[in-house]
Amino acid sequence: MLKKAGEKPIKKYEKIERKPPKGYDSANDFFESVFMDKDMIWMGQNTNHLVGDVIADAMADCALEKEYCKYPPPEGFSKLKSLILEDLGFENMEVFLTAGATESLFLCMNALLNPEDNVITCDPGYLIIGTFADRFADEVKYIPIYNKECNYKMTPSLVRDYIDDNTKLIVLIDPLNPLGVCYTEDEIKEFAQIAIENDIYLLHDVTYKDFAHEHFLAANYAPDNTLTAYSFSKIFGMAGARIGGVISNKNIIDSIKNVVVNDLGVNIISQAGAIKGLQTKGEWINEVREISFHNQKLIKEAVDKIDGIFLPVYPSDANMMVIDVSQAGINPKDLSEYLIERKLFTREGEYTSKLFGDKYLRISFSIPTNEIEVFCKELPKAIEALRKN
Ligand SMILES: Cc1ncc(COP(=O)(O)O)c(C=O)c1O
């Protein structure tokens, strides 16, 4: 029934209200002011600031040629799609391009889930995935993994404990935002086996795969059950260009195409950058990885010198890690607010956990080493200023 003007609007879904940071009316105002501050050290979004100009130049050329006057092919340039498949080493799979992996994750949930289904994922994790799943399924089961016993990971045996007849989907974020844990080949094989045995799906979010020491793809072991979410935001350093995709078999990609919103295609300038990024990846990836490994080592050394704080996971297989500050009696929100005053943008735990958000600060480290050194200098001062224990 149509509502008359002035009546309360119908809300189909509950909006997740995030409290804006101190001094801001909304989270957007906060992000905008941080974004505009050119002196801010960017450790709060797992972005990568280490790739040289090659992708930027390709995007600039595309813009100068005014390619953006035309619409792109609605399902993306075939060159880009075949480069993505090559990057993953997949054959007989299809790519569906989206404005970032986030859109892919939403489309996967929409295409796969029915109201009686449940979804298994973990906490801590990338919470928007659960939020999307909640819109289409009956329940999202979050496995609590912030403990040593499970190595801060969603293990196959934990997943077996949580599966029931209504489970339709297991979400593997690998490497995991925020902890930086990553699955071994045996674990990936076992997750694949679980999906096949139970005739359910695996959504393998490999957004951070290229920062891992070693990484394995579930689609190689359960090709008909796996959807691989792929992003250009992290290793390619293209977060603001908003491009990513989902890769799966033809059948699954066809069902995703049925729920598409953006059917006029993905930003043409971003596609030009993504093509160049994939074509040149071999030339710059080792340097990005080495700087990132070195940076996390510097952070580890700094953390180890401070009583009452620790790194639950080290080394990280992503470009971010978690610093546990709970034993020092520090509220991570106070810590991130303290650091932002010193031009260090980090994220308090509640951004990636409903259960353990009061325990940790998340920092990303794919930024120039001199900026990491600033963080390492400020961290002890921050902890001493805020410590209660
Ligand atoms: C696990 C995970 N997946 C996807 C994304 C978002 O990717 P994109 O920028 O391609 O939408 C993030 C961003 O932080 C993430 O942590």
Describe the structure.
The protein is of the alpha/beta class and 389 residues long. It folds into 2 domains: 27-51 and 284-386, Alpha-Beta Complex (Aspartate Aminotransferase, domain 1); 54-280, Type I PLP-dependent aspartate aminotransferase-like (Major domain) (Aspartate Aminotransferase, domain 2), CATH 3.40.640. Helices cover 38% and strands 14% of the residues. It has helices at 27-36, 54-64, 78-88, 101-112, 128-136, 156-162, 185-198, 250-257, 268-304, 332-341, 369-386, and strands at 41-42, 94-98, 118-123, 139-144, 167-173, 201-205, 226-231, 244-248, 320-324, 344-345, 347-348, 360-364. The strands form 3 sheets. It has a 7-stranded mixed sheet with strand order 2-8-7-6-5-3-4, sandwiched between helices. Strands 9-12-11 form a 3-stranded antiparallel sheet, covered by helices on one side. Strands 1-10 form a two-stranded parallel ribbon. Strand 3 (118-123), helix 5 and strand 4 (139-144) form a beta-alpha-beta unit. The mean pLDDT is 95. Pyridoxal-5'-phosphate binds next to helix 4.
